[in-house]
Amino acid sequence: MWHGRGKTAIAGIGYSEITRRPQKPLGLLAVDACRAAIADAGLEPERIDGLATYPESPFAGAGNRDGEDVVSVAFILNHLGLASDVRWYAQIETGMIASPVIESVNALLAGACDYVLVWRALHRPAPRGSAGVGRGAPRAAGDAQFIAPYGAASIVQTHALAWQRYMYRYGATREALAALALNSRRNANLNPRAFFYSTPMTREDYFNARPIAEPLCLFDCDVPVDGCVALIITTAERARDLRNPPAYLAGYGQNTARRRTLLYYTLDDYMACGGSLARKLWSSAGLGPRDMDAAQLYDGFNPSTLYWLEAAGFCGAGEGADFVRDGRIALAGELPINTFGGSLSEGRMHGMGHIAEAVRQVTDRAERRQIAGASAVCAIDGSPMLRGSGIVVTRDP
Amino acid sequence: MSDDATKSHKPVPAPDDLSRPFWDAARAHRLAVQRCAACGYYNHPPRNFCDACLGRELAFTPLSGRGAIYTFTVMHQRDVAGFEADAPFINIVVELAEQPLLLMVANLPIGERDRVRVGAPVEVWFEERGDGVVVPQFRIV
User: Fold this and answer.
1) Which residues of chain B are within 8 Å of residue A215 when distances are taken between CB atoms?
2) pTM (two decimals)
3) Which chain A residue lies closest to B88 (C-alpha atoms)?
4) What domains lie within chain B, and their CATH numbers?
């Protein structure tokens, strides 16, 4: 077991509005979320002495204007009115949002800072009909020269191709994805921050949805939104003096699997990368999948949740489609999944919604979605093959 | 594909020093990818070192052009550059006979949507897109 287990904690959560029609630039939404997280923890901005984010915009050809398309450490330093001399920061390029959380935990354990603000801001650029190759003359260079001339450069196609292979290998059907999407929507209907809070979905709605990249349909894709979610992380000792009960950080894991450079990431890459992350997650926390009272599993595209269930050992390879049936993953089930609605129904906050909900569940702050007495919950980020990082939070240190 | 070759807006491959032999071979209606002299691993996309052993001696080697459909998708979203008017269209990933997971991407005509399946055997053909652009494609055999 890891020596840092239970020595740091997440002590505050802040949300901006999550919207498809933003009334303000992304940077101001980020300021809203960061201020909300600091207030939620019961801190003053001057106490924040560490900053961490994963700022990447996930769209090919998206802009990189600070405060418009992305929100960097520099933007928050310039505009939030923090400590006059912030002691530590990290701006992470890989691993998605759990990775800056992990770096923050390491910095706190090293004594590099005392209170870290972590945020993830995401902007939905206007559709521009150029997935994978940018604007202007359509010349495809680099690895795209072997993909874009065939119209296969969009991320949704990558996921559709892997899911098709999964269906072939294991005999799964779209029923499995329907079960996941409907579960997420029911949970989102109990989450006032969710984009689909007021919009129920029936089984018919799912199966009648327009296809995007077969076998994936509209409701297998997360909701592109503008918004920001922020967290406050501090040492366990300091957290106990703050306003909320601490969500102790029990362990973490990152994907370090080896893989060949292929034109497409294959289903085997998803599983190998997910397994690599999960082994470290469970061994550092000294806990396993059966100890989890809920699992917040990344769902940028719906099949990823199924891969995570298998890769993290909640069920065996190829058993995910059976596992998600018959209410097992519902709030009242054996393993509630994406209890806040997931990215599919809360909105695309790139794993931050998953972490925030894990924190809420182990601190009795999950409103009508609360799982009574939840003591350990994992939040795992990323499509397993692309990147990925995850944490376990617990009620007790 | 059925496009009028002279009117294609599909992205055009931009050969570089590494990939030029691949596209030159395609223009001669041959399929060739890099193979490592040291370990025999086929590398695609091409690179300056072997992905399996870091060997520096890589030579473009002809392939049989035969393989099987590893996976496929029918794309409906009209946001793929140059393919806006083609949706829905089929993408297949072909696993070539020479090596497990030696993958290439191609299209099938939309008329093949009832016939496309994982594991279907395919062979290469070469699509002329005008202005000297030739892209390898695969068809079900």
Assistant:
1) 73
2) 0.94
3) A213
4) 14-62 (no CATH), 64-141 (2.40.50)
